[in-house]
Amino acid sequence: MGDSSGQTRERWSYDVFLSFRGPDVRNGFLSHLYQSLVTSGIYTFKDDEELEKGESISPELRKAIENSKIHLVVLSESYASSSWCLDELVHMMRRLKNNPGHLVFPVFYKIEPSHVRRQSGPFGESFHKHRSRHRESKLKQWRKALTSIANLKGYHSSNGDSDAELIDQLTRDILRVLPSSYLHLPTYAVGIRPRVGRIKELMCFGLDDVQIIGIWGMAGIGKTTLAKAAFNEFSHRFEGRSFLENFRDYFKRPDGKLHLQKKLLSDILRKDEAAFNNMDHAVKQRFRNKRVLVVIDDVEDIVQLHSVGIYLSCFGPGSRIIITTKNKHLLEQLDVENIYSPKELNADEALDLVSWHAFRSSEPPEEFLQFPKRLVEYCGGLPLAMEVLGAFLYKRSVSEWKSTLKALKRIPDDNIQAKLQISFDALNALQKDIFLDISCFFIGMDKDYVDCILDGCELEPVAGLKVLKERCLITIHDNRLMMHNLLRDMGRYIVQGTSKKHVKNREKWSRLWDRVHVIDVLENYSGTDANHPNHAIEGLSLKAEVTAVENLEVKAFSNLRRLRLLQLSHVVLNGSYENFPKGLRWLCWLGFPEESFPINLHLRSLVVMNMQNSNLKRLWDQKKPHESLKELKYLDLSHSIQLTETPDFSYLPNLEKLFLINCQRLAKVHESIKVLQGSLILLNLSGCIKLGELPLELYTLKLLETLILSGCSQLERLDDALGELESLTILKADYTAITQIPSSSDQLKKLKELSLHGCKELRKDRQYTNSDETSQVARLSPLSLNGLIRLRTLHLGFCNLSDELVPANLGSLSSLEELDLQGNNFRNLQTDFAGLPSLQILKLDNCSELRSMFSLPKKLRSLYARNCTVLERTPDLLECSVLQSLHLTNCYNLVETPGLEELKTVGVIHMEMCNRIPYSHRERIMQGWAVGANGGVFVPGSSIPEWVNFKNGTRSISFTVPEPTLNSVLVGFTVWTTYVSQQDDVMSAYIPKITLKNQTKGDVWSRNPATDLIRMYREKHIWQGHFSNEDFVLETEDEVEVSVDFGDKVTILETGLTLAYREVIEVPNVQLTEIDDEVDDELVTEIDDEVDDELVTDESQRRPPRKMGMGLKTLLGAFGLLAFIVVLGKHGRPLRRHNHLRRNKVEKDKEKNATLPIFSFLDY
């Protein structure tokens, strides 16, 4: 396979690709050169086929070119007579331009470089013959390639040297390039290219300081492979380079430190280690003036680095140090800012990798189709697991596949387990317990909830969870603890033990989570091993189905004396609780069957009690508990629909969090809640529909931070003492009967979120027009928000607000970041939102009477105004310079969105059914849409704009990537589709998908656009989306098919595509020397004065250019600010020009020209 972001056999399949014209050199010079290269261990591709087959090079040769590190071109007198050779040369020069990792070594064999450059002499004669057989466009490509290679430094056979001397020089120079700059990658490496692209961004080429780039991730995620690929890709840019693989393992060996120092010195300085008397001093001093690339693979802690003597100060300006590690804290200790955390392979990549390892093909045989998907699901996108298991299953039968997949559910693979367990073994005892608790019980649970449980177990979770996260043993998503499935299985396997005897003796396990195992232990009344008390069960989870309640005897738990974690779901226990475990810290009993808690259930150590969906009417009956639950901090009685009152809080004196969600019969909060004024920080009463009032004692809770009353539909008022809740940061009272907010609310100086969504009668107060109580007429006044100086989120949606009832001081909320006013009755919204300096999200959806708005916030990122059916014009969007998403769906009367076409930050634009906006305006929006965006534009329309030249009347489009113009580089492409549906104004549940097939390279990619789901309409609409070439690595002459899939309920009518290029303007370096007197000025390249005339090699391929003088450096820095977006139409004619400033860093590496990017949007 070719080197792409898809499957690659190695970064380079060949060290050298030989390009030559046979009759001139095959039996003499070339045969001796080839023999010398092979004898020296240089893996060389040489095409032995003399006869040309067709007008262009074969796919096999094209792949050989793409997968070769060095292109060695022997330019002899008859070279240009071969169209085959010339096509090879064109492809090689493109690879050199598109991929700096490739090198081209020209050999001018008995031919003058000027003849090659100007196509004169024998080359001119050949081109004269070509004119009658080939198009001018083809001749132009060949001329450009010949001119380019002639301006590279190369090797001359006409300087009096013998062939033997020239071959020896070539061999030595190639050997000098290869050993230190190439590392073998896994045979089947998938998804490398886009990840290396991300590393390139973090390398910050062009900056002269020394920088560390961290690659951080769990074991087996591919950190080392990625570091090797980056090393291969970028090592040519540096004066010295070294890859210290398995740093952690070597460091722990007796002579490990010395070995690592010797390797570092010998790699970079190319000297025998015996030349250094003091290794520590040499490491610290010998690289200070060298620009080097050093990769340090698998570092465990900072002590290892410093012991070897590796500090930033050791390396010269412009050096880059890449560190791979499983420990993020190490990178934080080193103040590393540029950290890349590789993600698991996506489904397509994972299937590809498994198929290559298991079947040596991108597609499994038909009879095996179901198995790779199951294996991918088990491996969870972890490359190590797929490589190990895929290789193991190579040439296995269907029955062996089935057996292996079944066995993996019980016993993890030893090779995978050993790799993953390295991170576990590095933990201390408390951290190991935390990891095992999470792997057995807490995956997917709220982090704060688990933190409270673990803290009650005295496991120091604040530090412990941080360490687990730093070492990639857990992740946290939406504040929930997550763990890779293979890490989960590893943890559970550690709990079970490794010996067969231990696995069978489940009472010796410290934790039980499998229903069968739990029942086995409980029915045998076991659980505490008298001979090995440390092996006693500490945690147990038994979950029964709702329809199949589990009945057990309480005495089954009597032997579990060390039990601290107990999770039961729909379990009935019969008998006395006198001998129930008394050391519980966590009791989670969902569906608790009793109406009150057993009086003899001793829970003096309990920290967290979760009794959701219970049958409780009250926590205790008339008899009070024998003892207070002084350790209890977290109580959740949510969805206990029989519960009529809260417990007496005097028995829960240290409670911090209380959840009573959807307790539909709860009518009273016990007045003893005042005892919690020194502890309670969260109270959630949402959905308590019988709750009509709150006790005055509640307002004494000085530490209360979160109060949630949403859905308490009978709650009509909050007491004026509300202002005494001095710690309150979140107040939610959505869909309550509240009619006013107490005036004391202005004392809530810490309030950050206020939500009154759906409070339709909400007013500040009522002022009466006369004193006669019999004829009072209430005059409504708007809500006041005085004093809420820290408010960040305000929800006033569906509050029946009209123009005059908009909070008068809304514009004074300087900290407000999100404002929700949707579903109200505004007509002319006169609030000056521009006065809200922090507002980023504004929601005005479903304001069906809204006709106009006065202004928009300058820092607005998202504007939602869907279903504003009479809105005609938005304020000037150009004022919103950082706007990222605009949602105007179903604004039927909208005719103008001033400034939108000029914005370059908007990634998503929804304008479905905005039919009154002139089509010319819609075209300008699509045409001016930022090339860098990747979301989508949705507008009404029946046909793709005329200036989109790749079009097809189906859901797919095929094209050949054309030769770029103006020294441009392909950066991405934009897709258009027209679509329609039989459904109207309905959101599709199908996630849109774009599939790209590179027929030339054999790659297949599927991508989900970074946009919302498709809203379906019977009227025709146009979608436009942009995709970066970093994912697909398209190159000139690639045959490509792109297809769009919006699901079976959406019909794609037409597809279009344009290519986006970044153009470069060449800026010459300071020191330029002509190759010969006849060379064109614009093609001059740098030559080192110290290089012998007999040995000429491209300077950009040998060592970094000398530092530029300050004058030019400053000048280029100024030029770096000059860039703009150019949109080119057919034949490159400009359609529109936008000023678009971008800072571009001047490269100070092995590039022969400093470059200045200009983006072009080209249609072909």
UniProtKB/TrEMBL annotation:
Keyword Transmembrane among UniProt keywords: yes
Transmembrane domains' residue ranges: 1110-1129
Pfam families documented for this protein: LRR_8, NB-ARC, TIR, WHD_ROQ1
GO MF term list: ADP binding
GO annotation terms (biological process): defense response; signal transduction
SMART domains: TIR (SM00255)
Top-level taxon in the UniProt lineage: Eukaryota
Keyword vocabulary terms for this entry: Leucine-rich repeat, Membrane, NAD, Repeat, Transmembrane, Transmembrane helix
Keyword Transmembrane (UniProt): yes
Domain TIR, first and last residues per copy: 12-178
Protein name: TIR domain-containing protein
Organism of this sequence: Brassica campestris (Field mustard)
